[in-house]
Design brief:
The complex is a heterodimer of chains A (about 150) and B (about 130).
Chain A: H1 24-36, E1 39-44, E2 47-52, E3 58-62, E4 65-69, E5 74-77, H2 81-88, E6 93-97, E7 100-103, E8 107-112, E9 118-122, E10 127-130, H3 135-143
Antiparallel strand pairs in A: 1-2, 1-5, 3-4, 3-7, 4-5, 6-7, 8-9, 9-10
Chain B: H1 2-27, H2 31-56, H3 61-83, H4 93-127
Classes of the chains: A alpha+beta (about 150), B mainly alpha (about 130).
């Protein structure tokens, strides 16, 4: 597979896939790229906002309400943890506890803290509690196996 | 190696169940067969309780092991009394049996967690 990259100013990010014949590998590649283009519609005080998957730091379930956290903002999301997980599995979103799904693209470090909890440090220095049960899922996501 | 050991344990369990199933047809339930079936039953109950505790609690690792230690010991004692495994004077032995298994499981788990964390942090550094 040949990968070509070039900067084109003034145009949106464009991915072109050229293939000799359509097969399962090409289909899988296209599906993965499409998932990376995934976005959510979040609700804020200013109204509805489209949030790209790459801007999502983590999603948290607080009293059965979902909230999306970006670097600086929080939005309410009309969805469920299960459907979100299913939708965003290959896009770098991984469940890290019963109530939290994290974007591993913004993960800076995982560490074990004194009371033997696990903690994820994000690149904006926000910290999330990681359940030991989901550590294997994070590892698999880094291996590129998906979860 | 881990996969081979796990597969060997599963195969052993299936072999024991298959051999005993045939033996039951020929000889009925002997004391040995009854004991093995009871152990399978106990293992099943412990596996279900372990799953439920993982799903319903989010304690620190040590806290989770301590809670499971007491819950599993209580199950082993109750099951042991019903199955007639213990005399009234030596029921506390369940704490030792379960304790040995838990110390080993905790040590293995701690090593695995450390390895997983190191792997993830290495991958993060590689992509940076």
């Amino acid at each position: 597979m040949k990968i070509e990259k070039r900067q084109v100013e003034g145009k949106p990010l464009t991915v072109t896939v050229e293939y000799p014949e359509w097969n399962r590998s090409v289909e899988s590649l296209v599906r993965k790229i499409e998932r990376l283009d995934l976005s959510f519609v979040g609700k804020s005080e200013d109204g509805l906002v489209r949030i790209g998957i790459l801007d999502v730091y983590y999603v948290e379930n607080v009293e059965r309400k979902l909230f999306i956290y970006t670097k600086d903002n929080t939005y309410r999301l009309e969805s469920s943890m299960a459907s979100l997980e299913k939708e965003a599995g290959v896009a770098g979103l991984v469940r890290v506890s019963r109530t939290c799904i994290m974007n591993i693209e913004h993960l800076k470090e995982i560490r074990q803290i004194r009371n033997s909890h696990l903690e994820a440090v994000m690149d904006n220095d926000e910290r999330l509690i990681v359940s030991r049960k989901y550590l294997g899922d994070i590892k698999r996501a880094f291996k590129g196996e998906g979860v | 190696m881990k996969k081979i050991l796990r597969d060997a344990c599963i195969l052993s369990a299936l072999t024991i169940l298959a051999v005993f199933a045939v033996s039951i047809l020929w000889m009925g339930i002997t004391a040995e067969i009854k004991l093995v079936l009871e152990l399978f039953g106990l293992s099943f109950i412990i596996a279900v309780v372990n799953y439920l505790l993982d799903e319903l609690t989010s304690l620190p690792i040590i806290g989770s092991y301590i809670l499971k230690y007491f819950v599993v010991t209580a199950i082993v004692m109750l099951f042991g009394f019903i199955a007639g495994w213990f005399f009234k004077s030596n029921f506390w032995m369940a704490f030792i049996y379960v304790g040995i298994v838990f110390v080993l499981a905790y040590l293995l788990d701690a090593i695995k967690i450390k390895r997983d964390i190191d792997f993830i942090n290495r991958k993060i550094k590689e992509r940076a």
